[in-house]
Design goal:
alpha/beta; five-stranded parallel sheet
Length: 123
């Protein structure tokens, strides 16, 4: 079985390190690129076409929904996961409408992220 190729985009160094640690412990996942702003995330996703892009909802740069749409258009097979510290129902709906495949709370990263990514990757 091949490793799930993941692009991680988060503006906080400690969040990136924590997520990388959680995913690094999984033998079926590989973080192939890390970005700290929205434009770099979109550019890297467009070039590398990873299996999954994890976007922090408050990432600096271009609007989150516009970025989701752009990634979804340029790499339609890439699953887009939004990480958020707080979110409202209408924000979740807009993210899904823009092309996101999932929204996860940043507080549940250590307990839910690997299994959520596996389910998403499996279809």
């Amino acid at each position: 079985m091949s490793s799930m190729r993941i692009h991680l985009a988060d503006s906080d160094h400690f969040s990136r390190a924590g997520i990388a640690g959680v995913l690094g412990a999984a033998n079926d996942m590989e973080i192939e690129h890390v970005s700290d702003c929205m434009s770099a995330a979109v550019e890297a996703a467009s070039e590398l076409k990873p299996d999954v892009v994890i976007l922090e909802s408050s990432l600096n740069g271009t609007d989150l929904l516009s970025s989701i749409r752009e990634i979804a258009e340029k790499t339609p097979t890439t699953k887009i996961v939004v990480l958020a510290t707080r979110y409202r129902r209408d924000e979740i709906t807009r993210a899904y409408d823009a092309g996101s495949s999932a929204l996860l709370s940043k507080s549940s990263i250590s307990s839910e992220l690997p299994s959520a990514l596996r389910m998403l990757f499996a279809g």
